[in-house]
Amino acid sequence: MKELSKIHVGLDVHKDSISIAAAESGRMPGRLIGKVTHDVNKLLKVLAKVGNADQLHIVYEAGPTGFGLQRALHSRGYLCEIIAPSQIPRRPGDRVKTDGRDSVQLAECPRAGQMSAVWIPDPEDEAIRDLSRAREDAVNSRVQARHQLKGFLLRHDVRYTGKTSWCGAYYRWLGGCRTWKSSAVNRPQRSLFWLRRSSRTPSFCPIAGL
Q1: What's the pLDDT tens digit per position in 133-154?
Q2: How far apart are CA 62 and CA 118, in angstroms?
Q3: 87-127, pLDDT tens digit by residue?
């Protein structure tokens, strides 16, 4: 990372809180400024006390909170970058992690040029990526449900005599199957059967082509 500004600000971002630290140019250690709830307006009030928007270089670690905070700060004129966790140097034997220490380290390392920022996708690109991931999760869930259903049928010696599973003929065969009503199949097993059978219907999912 280049020396982009005079004051480097590190944010340790969590779902409910944000710890804030700053490191000014030079070799002075970074300092912990404080901790606020995960609220952009409250964070902006703290940042305003540290410096003007054009003075600050803000970084935080990529995590489950996504890119929303970066976009909110960027829209208000702040230079904000996100760091991959693998880019953060770890001292050997340093196993003590606190929000304050992490934010101070995030402030100091960009000043020393020890980090590189990750690519920030546009909202449209992120939406496509989320859709792709959702489709992959749905397909994997369908495969798992099919395996569980086949195992359920096999345990009760219900066998399909056709050549191809999961086709129209197979679903019609499932629709006419009455073996699960046998006294050998208890109520939880019947519930599981209907749950797995319903998961095979693609129309429940809004993702086309599933």
Answers
A1: 999 999 998 888 888 888 888 8
A2: 8
A3: 777 766 566 678 888 888 888 887 777 777 888 888 899 99
> In b/e form, how buried is each residue of 98-122, taking b as 16+ CB within 10 angstroms?
ebbbbbbbbbbbbbeeebebbeeee
The angle subtended at Cα 17 by Cα 12 and Cα 21, nearest 5°, is 40
Q: Which residues contact 5 (CB under 8 A, 6 or more apart)?
A: 54, 55, 56, 57, 79
Average pLDDT rounded to a whole number, residues 173-190: 58
Residue 209: Cβ-neighbour burial (10 angstroms; 0-12, 13-18, 19+): exposed
Q: Which residue has the higher pLDDT, 15 or 209?
A: 15
User: How many C-beta atoms surround the C-beta of residue 22 within 10 A?
Assistant: 23
Closest-CA residue to 21 (of 41, 42, 50):
50
16 by Cβ neighbours in 10 Å (0-12 / 13-18 / 19+) ranks as exposed
Whether 20 and 102 have beta carbons less than 8 Å apart is answered as no
Q: Is the pTM of this model over 0.85?
A: no
For residue 13, what are its two tokens? 């971002």
Percentage of the chain exceeding pLDDT 70 = 79
Angle at 8 between CA 15 and CA 54, to 5 degrees: 100
